[in-house]
Amino acid sequence: MDAPVEFDAIDDHDDLIAWSRAYCKHARRKWLVDVRLDLVEWTVSTRARRRAAAVRHPQIDDATVGDALDWDAVPDADGRPLPCTLSLTWDAFREFSQAEWASTLRHELIHVEQYQHCATTGHGAAFRWRAETLDTEVHCQTFADARWTFECRTCGTVVARRYRDCPFVREYDRYRSDCCGAQLRCVERSE
Ligand SMILES: [Zn+2]
Ligand SMILES: [Zn+2]
């Protein structure tokens, strides 16, 4: 792929969008994804989110995944899909490897493909089939993939997640869970 910046050198939102857009162009060619990337807008979210990325699109009445939509019938659409927005979560990018991030983008590309053809998108059978072809996950990548998960020792509730080493990770035994006032158990994800 022809990226304007190396993945490991990304250090601001513009870089992340530039890399991600270039990757999506590459993926579109490689897996023959039928999307119009000129109708995709990009944004980076720095708010805490559970999802690594998301596609936001206008709500179109009576749209069903699998039913091709005639965009000519949609006001303001000029016969083309109304733009959708691919929102990238900065903290997820910082946590993910290049392979994980690329897989996340392929997942989102499937949402864009469905949306541009059917005006809606979901994780049903059509998505599963497409995800297999594009070698990506059916479920949106979430921060459940954090490197460390801290659980209440008494009831097992997840109390905290951490993606990078930080004081909390080293000193978690000083904290108690809100639910039971119990010690925490640290579970580390193995790569
Ligand atoms: Zn999804
Ligand atoms: Zn508890």
TrEMBL record:
Domain SprT-like, first and last residues per copy: 37-137
InterPro entries for this protein: SprT-like_domain
GO process terms (BP): response to stress
Protein name: SprT-like domain-containing protein
